[in-house]
Amino acid sequence: MAMEERCDVVRLKIGHLRIAARLGACLSMLALEAALWSPTTEAADVQPAPPAVHHPIQKAPPSRRVAPAGPAPQGYIPCDVTRAYHLDLMHAAGFTGANQKIAIIAAFDNPNVGADLHAFDIAFGLPDPAFQIVNMGPPNTATGTGWDTEIDLDVEWAHAAAPGAAITLVEAATDHLNSTQNPQVGLLAAVDYAVQFAHADVVSMSWGGIEFTGETVLDTHFPSTDPTSNKPIMYTAAAGDSGFGTIWPAVSPAVLGVGGTRLAPSAVGNDTNQTHFGCSGMSTTPGVTSQNETVWGGGPACVQGSCPGTGGGISNFEPRPTWQNNLGLSSGGRATPDVAMLADPSTGVALYSDGSWSDFLLGGTSLGAPLWSGVIALLNQQRIAQGLSNLNVTSSSSWAYQTTALNDIVTGNAPSSPSDPCLSSGACTAHSGYDQVTGRGSPIGTLPWEPLQGPITSAPDAAAQGGGRLDVFARGSDNALWQRTSNGGQWGGWQSLGGVLTAAPGVVAWSPGRLDVFVRGSDNALWHRWWTTAGWSGWESLGGVLSSGPAVASWSSGRLDIFVRGSDQALWHMSWDSVRWTPWESLAGVLLPFDPGAVSWGPNRIDIVVRGSDSQMWHKSWDSVRWTPWEPLGGSLTSGLGAASPGASQLDLFGLVANGALQHKAWAGRWGVWLDLGGPWASDPGVVSQRNGTVDVFERGTDGQLWHTTIPSPLT
């Protein structure tokens, strides 16, 4: 065995087999065992040779209004895409793909991919991943073939979706499934390596070819579990870029076939004409919806007999898996794709390749497949935290047909030609539910909710004293006040504080070592109890006739401001100035019988939100001189409200709508749009910020238990 070394490369040669392993930094050398593997020789060897594959990558020139002064990213950047699909929610909650490994399978060697990835990461503030390259052929063979661009696209955008995941790039020596000279260095051999030696959790394949006799035998290269550890493995494969029609391996029942979509600017709060490196100045966005995400295909590009667009259809060779039996499909075999994601190059992404920014926007289902591999890594990490296993596809089940956390694409079509019969049959047209161009839809990142037990019989409220401490309060089944405390993320048990509550509590911490909690008692008066490091005080009555629970804010140590709905349906206010309680004062308004929300972002500033008689959220604030007039913030709310502030000039406001879904609206120099954070929930939200760029949200579930999650702030 001859070994050739340099700073970041170990290259081995055994017979005709050449494998180079290259690490992303000169920190250590990857030692490959001499006894590598012998790919299984099966009946596939006597089948007709499969056709060559292609990588469904597409590019489009930017439609610039103003040309950039120098090299700059063209197209959507990572924060655009993660915001659109709400992956930023998962990232902020700590789900970044940590302890997951994504294997990228490609052809030929790109010698610049490590440097390109590092430059991409620096530009967009991403961490460098644990990155390993396994090259099965000669060095520097991808340059100028298009595979160099494909490799950069796959690696950079899988990493953008899952910045905490490790990435192993396995470079086949050829762009054929099995090399006729040496089957040990083809693309399927690279898949085998990713499974058997890299032990990948997710395998991404942005390539494919037309279907062929004997493909079903090759499906054995995609085992649903790691043969060594029995760990579930997911495979993602691009569905093609030539319009309606099937390609393998996307059509294999063992993989997750990925179709392509187009995003309107409203999905991301930005359009591709704006060169940018961050998202802080972008418009607010609700993320992907059935209105702003459509099929990639058809349209003006569909001319002269060909139509770029997502692939899809029903296989002539692969049998239909049982998990597709109830989709209302015509008779036949396996239908593809299963899911979809951004692919249209005219709304494509930025790419750093071969040492510089590409002048083009990149897309194709070659983009969708690695993006979905990153999504799977996020979901796997989330599942493992819940005591579950990785996702995979088996003969009896496919996660994509069980989840509801998908955006259903219902508009657009993707014919292979202007006269494609699929247009008249509707086979290549999106519609509600499963369709053969976008599958079940695109991902919507969901918040991971933590169960905190109960039961509770009111909305919760919470306070943050600093130092990683959270205190949450709610009414228990005995109508008493109950408290639970977290220190550094470790929750203690519930403890009773007594009393008889007729509404949800309100709580605030004006400094470390101090908590003030307010409740409506059985006499409809306001009652108060406080905690210091010496322990809890007794209850004191502050009078009044309340028709809601209280909301409380504090702008400094020793200051308390309490807000309630009075018996006249108006908002009433009283305060503690460290010496005495002020008399009740009316702030007017006509409130529905739901709790207000209140918060302070700094000295002499208070913001209040209420649900008005029109079910909108209404807002007013104290600016150290006067109360501003009421202003409507929209929404069609069915609950009381929660308010938090992570810092000066920032607000995060919450309420529920008719289906119990949690809605969020933010202020960060301007009002954002209403965002749907999912549900259903059974109470007003309780929210607080620890002033660390996040907001902690508490809800009572439909099971009567307390649930908790954390979101980034500002979330716009």
Report on this structure.
- 12% of the residues lie in helices and 29% in strands.
- It is mainly beta and 716 residues long.
- It has two domains: 4-46 and 73-443, Rossmann fold, CATH 3.40.50.200; 450-712, Fucose-specific lectin (Neuraminidase).
- Strands 1, 2, 3, 5, 6, 7, 8, 10, 12, 13 and 16 form an eleven-stranded mixed sheet that branches. Strands 23, 24, 25, 26 and 27 form a five-stranded antiparallel sheet that branches.
- Strand 17 and strand 18 (356-357) form a beta hairpin.
- Helix 4 packs parallel to helix 8.
- The longest helix is centred in the middle third of the chain and has 21 residues, at 365-385.
- The model is unreliable at 1-48 and 65-69 (pLDDT under 50).
